[in-house]
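Students often ask why we bother encoding 3D structure as a string. The short answer is that it lets us treat folding as translation between two languages. Here is a chain of 386 residues written in the first language.
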Amino acid sequence: MADNITTTTVSIGGISLSTSIRFGLLIGSEIPSLVCSLFVLYNFIFDPALLRSLPHHAIICLNITGILFKCIDVPLYLNYTIMDEVWPPTAAICLVWWLADYGFYNACVAFTAWISIEQHIFIYHNHWLSTPRKRFFVHYLPLFLIIVYLLVFYVWVIFFPPCENIYDYTLSACGTTPCYVLQPIPGIWDAAVNGCLMAAIIVVFSIGLIIRVLMGKYRHHQAMHWRQHRKMTLQLVSTSSIFIIFDLPSAIVIFIHLCGIPFDEGNILLPYFFFASYWLIFLIPFVCLHSLPNVKQRIMKILCISPRQQATVGVTIMTAPRKGEKADLGFWDFLRIPGFFWDPRIFLGSPDFLGIPRIFLGSPGFFWDPLDFFGIPWIFTVPLTL
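And here it is in the second language, the structure alphabet:
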């Protein structure tokens, strides 16, 4: 999708799937993926422990670019499938669409390539990160340079291209590729470096990590490394597998084109590869979700669902107010007693609960004094563990 480099129009609308099927597949994947991305990003950013963890920084960048892609590219394409044209038909919309389609997509590939390299450092060369100075040059500086490079390159080639763009608002993604992909230097650089090279790095370093892990199991100290970084390794393998399945085929076709081999066969397959590459972005957050500790508890917290706790419960004996004493709590506070609606011992008035209903209903003035009905005080609390 982000690697179009043909002299003809390549559009994902050329696949033999009806509009309704394409729309259903995309919207059915977009919504859960976007929700998962926001959930993962929220936890990584607002949890100080996760935010300080070095392996999570590139994952945060990966999720941010994925969210931007899903918030720009996918809605524009869904809008096109409904209206059968680019709307609104302006050059600005086309440029923003291309920025998402090329820039944000290839940024996800680049961040994954860096993650595949950095995992080797975290597992086998963590002494390179032992001091703040080393962490700056080995971890922070490369990530910063990747972000700056991607931002500068794609803003330049899309918004300030060395050629003139042509827009066709009746076709998906404004019909044609950005003009820079047909230029010798920026076009070949984008396809070879940002596309093929990054895909090759993901494949080589991921397979290399698997080989090192398997070989290291024969050595005691490296087996310890495997147990310590098992989750990190499995996450990289999962992420790399997604990229290999959904991105590598199009990268291979582009590489064949760069080698001068006729592109006719590739033109038939590329629209399908580009359409399938949407699921590369859709599946990334679910793999990143595996990096979060206590996922179930975090989801319940977001949904405001508190797990049932075996905790100390306050049992209240309620009497009429003393003379000159103000009634602070009443009937509605009684309803909030833990277990009032689900624990039968409350209603049966068992000895454990000191006959709360009988005491409450037997309070002087309960049926005729509004102060008693709405303002019966809590005199003291007896702790009891369920």
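Translate back mentally: The mean pLDDT is 77. Keep this in mind for the problem set.
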